[in-house]
Every structure is written in structure tokens, then in C-alpha cells.
Fold:
Amino acid sequence: MDFIKIGLVDDHKLFRKGLSSLINSFTEYKVISEYSNGLELIKNLPISQPDIILLDINMPGMNGFQTMEILKKDYPNIRVISLSMDDNENTILKMIGLGARGYILKDAEPNELKSCLDSVWLKGYSYSEFITTSLINSLQHRDPKFDPEMVQLNPREQEFLKYVCLELTYKEIADKMCLSTRTIDGYRDNLFQRLGVKNRVGLALYAVKNGIFKL
Structure:
């Protein structure tokens, strides 16, 4: 049978070997390559391309963020799952904004990893309970009568939300949109109020859920 080819990128050799053994125990998947950092991965991709890459974030030489930028630009058809010990909402948002199709913690259960791989392969993405809980946290204190999906956004507001999902500061967003930082701050604060969210994560979640920003 044809296997779904997996690439592993992690600087901890023992962890990588254990993960490789686990993935190879899944019937449909086979680890075809292992690398200790992004530099090794990018160097070897022209020779051996996996279908899915499990990518660590904190690595020497070239970290996960830097690697993801190159993968998104040069290898957009390879599906990437971010693999990390970091459950910080900003880190999750940054990796998803850079194009990661899923995000899983290193202490996840084997069945969670299998579900994540299956979802990314079959649907193109994986929104686990962990990701959903982390990102939706910013929406928990909004008015229960408020429905953000009913809010009508003009094209410039939608453009702003797309940039919010990328690795850009508000000043850089202002430059992209040819607006002043004060105007961008106005867009942000206005959307905070209208969408019932409290931070940038909430804005990004709204954009993804409503198809404004596509992964």
C-alpha cells in the first residue's frame, strides 16, 4: 500500500526517535526523514519531500517560525503540523498565521497525534480541542446576546483582519494598508467592540471562522 510520508524536525534526538516509532505504528503513515533543525530540512527537501511535516518551534540554527516562512513560500503543498511544548496563544496564532495546518503539544496522547494527522491529511487542517480552547478564550466574556457573525464588515476592515492573522505588527499593517498607525488603532479598537473580543487572538479567530482568512 502507499504510505502517507511524514517528515520530523526536532532537535531532541531521543524524542524524535520515539515519535518516529509511534508514527510508524500507525498503519497509514511512515516517517521517511528526520532532521534536527530547519536548515537541515530545507537543504534536503529538493531530494525527499514528505506529505506532512511535524515541525518543532524552538530549535537552533533555524527555528520553526523561520522554517515555516520558507515552507509557505517555496513548498505550499506540504502540510505542516506545529509540534511544541509552548501553549501560549500568541505562539499558536503566529504559527497558524504562517501557514501551519495544525498545532499539537509534545505531551499529547498518541490518539491525539493520530487524530491530528488524519484530520490534516483528510481535511487539510486540524482544529483540536486544545487549539479551539486556546483561541476561543478571548470570546468567552462577550455579551451572550451578541452574534459577531451578523456584523457587516467593509472591504478595508476585512483587509485589516487578514493582516492581523499574519506575522505583522500594527505599524507594519498600517504601512501595508497605506494608513497611519492611529487609523489602524482605530480599526482595531472599533472591531474589538463590534466583534465582542478583547485581543488580537480574538480578531484572528473571527477571521478564520468566517472565511476572511483562509489557512
